[in-house]
Amino acid sequence: MKSRSAVLVISLVGLFGLGTPSHASNPTSYLSQDKETGYSRSLFKHWIDADRNGCDTRAEVLISEALVKPRLDKKCKLSGGKWLSKYDNKSVTKASQLDVDHLVPLAEAWRSGAWAWTPKQRQDFANDLEDPRALIAVTLSTNRSKGDKDISEWVPKVNTCDYVEDWISIKIRYSLTYDSKEAIALSNFSEKCSFTNTPVQALIGYTYQSESANPSPSPAPSSSPMPTPTATQSPVASASATPTVTLTPTPTPTIITSSSPSPTPSATQEAIIPTVSPGAFCSPAGATGKSANGTLYTCKTSATDTRNRWRQ
User: Fold this and answer.
1) Has this prediction a pTM greater than 0.70?
2) Over the chain, what HEC string results?
């Protein structure tokens, strides 16, 4: 890291243009502690045959990413073909030797916000064919090595910066959060990688506090849904000491129903309303935000769509 100060403030910004207008083009991402309980792979229904053409999501990815197109029988069984696994640059000629990896693993998505999604939202995430970064055909060994690790624990040995850039893009596409270790990793990669998409809109604030500096307890978080943490200042630690960092706690998102109105901020503490993109996926239900021009939006479903999106 660039500084050994007791407090390191890192801004993670709304990054990268996204694949479709149904998702945020200038999204706001959030810092939050991971939810470590409740995950089951069965909560993310896959692989499905969304267009009912006989080929499920896995087969569609393999067909799309093939360098040499495979042959398909009537039941969409693949034979022949050739692929390049981007996690290790190995050439593969049998579909059975490939896994279709969720670039952001299902378990990581759950920890980062998908726990608050509807079953339909989780199914859409697990079978995302709209964004070519979401699902990727890779060798069995590299996918098993990765498991459900985030980028603080695992990145491929090749094409590393591309992987990190795609990771950020997918998390922003689905408004998923970052934990403290992941944020430190993102900061380090931002110094090493020349990302092809330039950050265009702030902001998420991260505050790291050195245990050696014995900081005082953090103030109570704002009652506004999913607020942006505020950077605070602490004394500078010894130049020879490498600070151990902990995240200023961010409240776990809670589902807010129409019968439970949002709390009114006190006169001395103004609620922080995040900037959102109309129509983007969001959580939790009932959260409020505003567009770039100041129009207020609510995270909710509609009569024709059961997924939570930013709507008026």
Assistant:
1) no
2) CCCCCCEEEEEEEECCCCCCCCCCCCCCCCECCCCCCCCCHHHCCCCCCCCCCCCCHHHHHHHHHCCECCEECCCCCEECCEEEECCCCEEECCHHHEEEEECCCHHHHHHCCHHHCCHHHHHHHHCCCCCCCCEEEEEHHHHHHHCCCCCCCCCCCCCHHHHHHHHHHHHHHCCCCECHHHHHHHHHHHHHCCCCCCCCEEEEEEEEEEHHHCCCCCCCCCCCCCCCCCCCCCCCCCCCCCCCEEECCCCCCCCCCCCCCCCCCCCCCCCCCCECCCCCECCCCCCEEECCCCCEEEEEEECCEEEEEEEC
